[in-house]
Amino acid sequence: MPIVLATTTPGEPEIFASLQGEGPSIGRPSVFVRLSRCNLACHWCDTAYTWRFTGDNRPHRSGESFARKANQIAMGERDAAQAILALGPERLVITGGEPLLQASALTKLLTLLREIRPDLHVEIETNGTVEAPPALDALIDQYNVSPKLAHSGNTPDLALIPERLQAYAGDPRAFFKFVIAQPGDLEEVLELKSEYGIPATRLQLMPEGTDSATLYDRMHWLAPLAMRHGLRMTDRMHIHIYGDTRGT
User: What is the CATH code of the structural domain delimited by 3-177?
Assistant: First the structure.
C-alpha cells in the first residue's frame, strides 16, 4: 500500500527540511513529511489542501476547495524513504492532515528508515483522536498532540475522545499543544488538563493565526494568561520567517 502525501506543487510530494516552527521541538532542524487526509475539519486549518478536496463540503473559513489530483500524491514507501534520507534527517516530523490514518503505510516507511538510520528521532503530529497500532507506536519517539477545542468547529464527540486523551496524558512521549483563538479558550484547556491529568510540563498554548500581526496580537494577551496558570506558550516561528506557505 503506498503512502499518500500532500504536495507542494502538483506532482511534488511535501517532503522538506526546515526548522520546527512550533511545539516542544521549536527551532530544531527537522525533515517534514506532510501526509494527506484528515478525519476532522477545523474552520481555521492552515493545511486545508490536505483534506478539503472538491466535493468536500465540511466548513472552512476560506470556503476554498482543492483539486485532489493536484494536491495529493501516492508514493511507495521505499521511494518516500529515499526522498527523506536524501535530506539527511536526524529528526523526522510526520504531519498532516492526520498521519495516523495511514498507520499501515507509515509503519512500513518508518521501519525502512530505522534500518538505515536507527538513531532517527521520529515525531508524529496528531489531532489526538486516532490510536497508533503497537507496531507503529514502537517506532515513535514523540507525539505532538493537538486536541481541537470548540472554536475549531469540530464537535467534542469527534474531536475529544476520552480514551485517547487519557492515554496520551499518561504517555511521557506525548506533548499537548492547544490552539488558542480567544481568551475564553483557556477555560476549556484547563478543564481538559484537570479531567485527564495532563501535566503542565507537557502542555503548551499556541496562538491561532497565519500571519505575524495576528500571532503577535494574540501573544500579547496569551502571555499573561500562560504566566498566571503556570503554562508554557509556543510561537509559530515558521509563519514569521516564511509566511503561510507550503514546504516550510
Answer: 3.20.20.70
Return the amino acid letter for 212: S
Tell me how far apart the alpha carbons of residues 87 and 146 are, in angstroms, rounded to a whole number: 27
Domain boundaries along the sequence of the chain: 3-177
Residue 106 CA, chain-centre distance (Å), reads: 15
Summarised one tens digit per residue, pLDDT across range 124-177 is 999 999 999 999 999 999 999 999 999 999 999 999 999 999 999 999 999 999
Q: Crossing angle for the helix pair 185-196 and 162-169, nearest 10 degrees? A: 70
23-49 tens-digit pLDDT: 999 999 999 999 999 999 999 999 999
The interaxial angle of helices 212-229 and 185-196, nearest 10 deg, is: 50
- Stated pTM of the model: 0.97
